Sequence to fold (334 residues):
Amino acid sequence: MSDAFTSQHQVCIAGTGSYLPEKVLTNADLEKLVETSDEWIFSRTGIRERRIAAEGEYTSHMASKAGAKALEQAGIAADDIELIIVATITPDTLTPATACYVQQQLGAPGAVAFDISAACSGFLYAMKIAKRLISDGAFSNALIIGAEKLSSFINWDDRTTCVLFGDGAGAAVLRRAAPEEGSIIATEMGTDGKLTHLLNIPGGGSACPITIDNAGMNLASLSMMGKEVFKHAVNRMKESAEKVIERAGLKPEDIKLVVPHQANLRIIDAIADRLSVPHERVFVNLQKYGNTSAAAVAIALDEANRAGLIQRGEHVVLVVFGAGLTWAAAAVRW
Ligand code: ACO
Fold:
């Protein structure tokens, strides 16, 4: 599904924010939990450490903290926010939506609030939904958040997954833009439901409730066929990034920064090469946080923004990939 910008109102990113829990879990710490090594983890993924939420710190708490920072940067009071979308695969509860807790925690009683589940692609799915609802005139602004507490859905005995993931949240405020302001120029998203088996959390849903009989089987933990996922990730991210670059009328040299999903440095390098974008114009922070799923691209965008790597009028391309399989991209004039 795709669109070039044709609607009534332009939509800009007015502010970004992120939050990472304090606790750091290093590769050396993981060497004590499973049979692995810093050398294996770093050379295969680029990850050195990740953050782990504190006891009693939930996805909604991290989402609210990231959201509050984005609101502050956008200069919009929580009271004035009209829409909150939280992208997560690790909600506080199956129902109500994590976005409802966030609405309460932020003090945003006027906001319509709901979650979407698109794994690592969720933040850009939320961006497209919010952009459309604002450009159509249904809302004048929105707070979109990617937030995950993956540490609650990891089998800490499984070395093929436990070294990859971390916790955190990132957010952006979208609002109607004046003609001279930046805008989200083009978006793209896609899904391949034939590949649900490559990456999933099999238990805890209606297909496989957790019962006394299966409680010890780690069914509510993330399971992944890494090599297969890797191949699809490179191809789909490249294709979707190319589509938004073309639709936005950009050439590789016009792109100030590519902000990709932060899962694996080898995937990111392969995409940079295929898009002919120099590696120094591709933002990477996965060495610090690992893969935080829906939060990853949002945290990366906030860090790049706050570091001054994207200035007004410059172009940034966001591109993501995750379970589903799902993928998405966006071209933004800052
Ligand atoms: N430490 C040491 N050895 C390990 C570890 C570990 N932590 N994990 C696996 N190994 C071993 C394997 O057992 C295997 O051993 P064998 O050859 O004796 O069988 C060997 O290392 C190679 O394993 P592979 O899985 O083939 O390693 P690969 O090079 O494919 O790297 C990885 C694995 C890092 C997971 C990679 O495939 C990857 O990044 N895939 C993509 C992940 C991704 O992009 N996910 C996106 C979305 S996530 C979401 O949506 C929530």
